[in-house]
Specification:
The chain is of the alpha/beta class. The chain is about 50% helix and about 20% strand. The relative contact order is 0.04.
């Protein structure tokens, strides 16, 4: 039945079983029985003969807490296809196979015995199996098959074309590469401060980086507020979330992973080479798509790494992390391998053939160099095993010897593993416990005797080896004394060369900086020349600039009144002292220009009394064309406006003076007239 409305239930469980067809068939597609139940076992949805597309659609429609299978390989023909198909299911739904127990596989008949009274005791049909799988999933049976790895890619790339720009092409390219390098360092610092795990790949070039790629092992949400997307003139920062499905299907057999030697050449394209402990190449590849997770999967497909090798003395951080994750030892050559040496090592490992590219070559050379450093020790292990004649896994012994234990101790480790395999077969049988204890006791005694023999053989070997080393030490001491004198002089010479190279690099940077400064000064000079030309022609004019009309700000200007006579002052704000206004009125200042402040009523009032015109930038809608700490370049219209306003103020002043004179004369005449009239009245 098909539901038209999503049931409002907190937890749903989906069971799936193949009904007909096969995922291996290209002509007859597989069809499935599907049952969805709630936490109480009530059936919410039931489908039969449903194609895989419907199964996925229903999973998204109901988004069950768990999707259960009795065999996960019923929906795909291989693990690669299975991973891609499982990516189509909702991320919040856990994919489980109910037949996988803690330490072994079970059949559906074994698991469903307690629930057969619900579906009957007959043959398990696909519908019944799907229902019981859902019930078992609700009871927390089975193992989780799918893990979703969330990563975030941060890409830093050049934005502009190297052919554009006003500088020469080489300088312009260095500028853009330096910008990419600076952005990369800022992102790295932000990730380090946030404590996020990441791998960094980059392409170096002259003056900086061509590009950089961070693989951050955290979901996109963790990077919010730490790294932001950016698109600028020189570079861009792009952030992409990446989701990858990882299969987690336990093997039916508990076989031990074989120890291997792994060579890595990290970079934009990563090379990988895998050797067994006999120096044979078992895997060689290179790819741009390798990240830490896929690289570990590729390595563990062929065994357990005991050595991770690189071809440089200082291994990259990404290789250190992989060695740490796998528990492998890190091998680095005593010096950086040359191209000729790496080609020779790779050819020797491949019996005369050459790898497909330089990344495979470098990885293989590193792995084979590591193998050669261990070959004598591994050969000694083989000879000791043949001498003793004990039948144990030689790779286990070699792995332990590589990690630093003696041959005798390594033999005991191998014997312990053999014993674990033997004893684990009958681990659950109580009636054989006493028998196993007797076997263990006898084997302990045998192991003690064998250990004594091994120790005696080891002692003989070590005594001979000590003698050889003493002779070798004497020879090397003599050779060292001969070379010491020349070595000291070469160290002194190399230190001088290194110091001079460092000084040259510093001076080169200073030269580049000075060149940029010169270019800026040339452009500044051209701008000033153009302004002076327009000032001379009368298109522009200069005004003296001060912050405000206070004694501290105007001290230099008023010390020489001739400097300001007939000129204009440009004020950054309308703060003033009246004494200074009186001083400016005495030297016939052309006027005051106040920078964009409408609140200048008091200044205008006081300046008007002293015949000093005041204007603001907003009144004339004219902004400064060029500014320094001492001068401001303005359009000539501002000067004309100041002349007009000053003339108007002077005319008003003249009119006021004339009016006051007339009033004064009138008052005098009236006083004289009143005085004469008073005398006549008295007589």
């Amino acid at each position: 039945m098909t539901k038209t409305q999503l049931p409002r239930r907190k937890e749903l469980y989906m069971g799936v079983d193949i009904e007909e067809g096969s995922p291996l068939s290209s002509t007859k597609r597989a069809l499935y029985s599907i049952v969805i139940v709630d936490a109480e076992g009530k059936i919410i949805e039931k489908q039969s003969r449903a194609p895989l597309s419907r199964l996925i659609r229903l999973a998204w429609y109901y988004k069950p807490k768990k999707i259960a299978f009795d065999n996960i390989m019923e929906i795909a023909s291989n693990k690669k296809d299975l991973a891609r198909i499982l990516e189509l299911f909702p991320a919040e739904s856990e994919i489980v196979q109910v037949t996988i127990g803690k330490d072994k596989y079970y059949s559906m008949n074994q698991l469903t015995a307690p629930y057969r009274d619900i579906v009957g005791y007959g043959k398990l049909t696909p519908g019944k199996t799907a229902y019981l799988a859902a019930i078992l999933a609700s009871k927390n049976y089975g193992a989780s098959i799918r893990k979703i790895e969330q990563k975030t890619m941060i890409l830093i790339t050049k934005h502009r074309s190297p052919a554009s720009g006003g500088y020469s092409q080489q300088r312009y390219q260095r500028k853009v590469r330096a910008a990419v390098l600076n952005a990369t360092m800022r992102v790295k610092q932000a990730l380090d401060e946030a404590g996020l795990e990441y791998d960094l790949k980059y392409r170096k070039s002259e003056g900086g980086l061509e590009s950089a790629t961070f693989t951050v092992y955290a979901p996109r949400e963790r990077l919010l507020g730490i790294v932001r997307p950016y698109r600028g003139a020189d570079y861009s920062v792009t952030i992409k979330p990446v989701y990858r499905t990882i299969l987690s299907i336990p093997e039916k057999s508990s076989k031990h992973l074989k120890p291997i030697i792994v060579g890595l050449d990290p970079g934009i394209t990563t090379g990988i080479a895998v050797l067994d402990l006999n120096g044979r190449v078992v895997y060689l590849d290179s790819s741009k798509s390798f990240d830490r997770g896929s690289l570990l999967e590729a390595i563990l497909e062929y065994g357990k790494p005991v050595i991770i090798a690189v071809d440089v003395p200082e291994p990259p951080e990404s290789v250190r992390k992989i060695a740490s994750l796998t528990g492998a030892l890190l091998y680095t050559p005593p010096g950086e391998l040359s191209v000729v040496e790496k080609r020779g090592l790779a050819q020797k490992a491949l019996n005369g053939l050459l790898p497909d590219d330089s990344h495979q070559r470098d990885a293989l050379a590193a792995a084979y160099k590591a193998y050669l450093s261990l070959r004598n020790k591994l050969g000694h292990v083989e000879s000791q095993l043949k001498k003793i004649g004990i039948n144990v896994d030689s790779s286990t012994v070699k792995e332990a010897v590589i990690k630093g234990v003696t041959v005798a101790e390594a033999l005991e480790i191998a014997i312990e593993k053999e014993l674990d395999d033997i004893l684990s077969v009958n681990k659950e049988r109580v009636e054989e416990k006493n028998h196993r204890a007797r076997i263990q006791q006898s084997q302990d005694e045998a192991r003690g005797y064998q250990r004594l023999q091994l120790l005696e053989a080891e002692l003989t070997y070590l005594r001979e080896r000590v003698k050889q080393l003493q002779e070798e030490n004497e020879r090397l001491q003599e050779e060292m004394e001969r070379k010491l004198a020349s070595f000291k002089s070469s160290i002194y010479r190399d230190s001088l060369v290194s110091k001079m190279e460092s000084q040259i690099a510093i001076l080169s940077k200073e030269i580049e900086s000075l060149k940029d400064t010169i270019n800026n000064l040339i452009n500044e000079k051209k701008t000033i020349e153009e302004i002076l030309s327009k000032v001379y022609s009368g298109t522009y004019f200069l005004a003296y600039r001060i912050r405000s009309l206070t004694q501290s700000n105007a001290k230099n200007l008023i010390s020489n009144p001739q400097t300001l006579m007939g000129e204009a002052l440009y004020l950054d704000n309308p703060v003033f002292e009246e004494d200074l206004l009186y001083t400016l009125s005495s030297i016939k200042l052309l006027g005051l220009i106040v920078r964009g402040s409408p609140d200048i009523a008091m200044l205008k009032k006081n300046a008007k009394r002293l015949l000093i015109p005041v204007v603001t930038e907003g009144e004339l809608d004219i902004r400064p064309l060029y500014m320094t700490d001492e001068y401001v370049v303005l359009d000539a219209r501002v000067r004309e406006e100041l002349f007009r306003r000053r003339k108007k103020l002077e005319e008003e002043y003249e009119q006021r003076i004339n009016l006051e004179r007339l009033i004064s004369e009138y008052r005098k005449e009236r006083f004289r007239a009143l005085g004469s009239h008073g005398k006549r009245i008295t007589q």
